[in-house]
Amino acid sequence: SDMTHWPFKVIRGPKDKPIISVTYLGESKEFHAEEISAMVLQKMKEISEAYLGRQIKNAVVTVPAYFNDSQRQATKDAGAIAGLNVMRIINEPTAAAIAYGLDKKGSGERNVLIFDLGGGTFDVSLLTIEDGIFEVKATAGDTHLGGEDFDNRLVEFCVQDFKRKNRGMDLTTNARALRRLRTQCERAKRTLSSSTQATVELDSLYEGIDYSVAISRARFEELCSDYFRATLSPVEKVLKDAGMDKRSVHDVV
Fold first, then answer.
1. What is the pTM of this model?
2. Into which family does the record put it (predicted)?
3. Which CATH architecture has domain 147-227?
């Protein structure tokens, strides 16, 4: 079901490896997942070099705590393609705890819950930090829950709203209109983080017809209520798996 929302195709490559097929300027191009990841790492390298004013060769790359050995190796390969010497692969929740300085916050053992609702996946991890040593006690999550799902729900709402307002016209038959709508829906979602209302507005969205709809934060929360509820069970699972209760958690990131 995810593939219906993707602006690219995934096809079977040699040895059953997935190949990402995209159309750019009317030409079809194919990439391995490592090559796509390398492009992201290359861009991050360029941003970092521009900020620091010097060349970067070495990097520590983070991955989800649940990644297996082959996924971690693929990430190292992507780093090499991007021109980086990957010195170490570390777990994302560990990196988050370090970024917030939680390893330097007081003495003794500290339990930290990392709640990471990303673009496409949701991860919850429970760490124990003591004397600068990080130990992942438990992980849980949903590899099919993230920001894109919230975007999709808003897109689906707008598609139905457009159909209702325009004699049954179906936006899903026009890939370009859907891409434009998705961009505006994502922008509206971000706006609702700091405002109580946002507007999805597009000129000549489909067959010359303009489209506009106001979305309140309350309406957005109602549309995505099942997704919000779905984030609770992984939190309960990591506490149970780690043999802790909520009162044992010192910090939440």
1. 0.77
2. Belongs to the heat shock protein 70 family.
3. Alpha-Beta Complex (3.90)
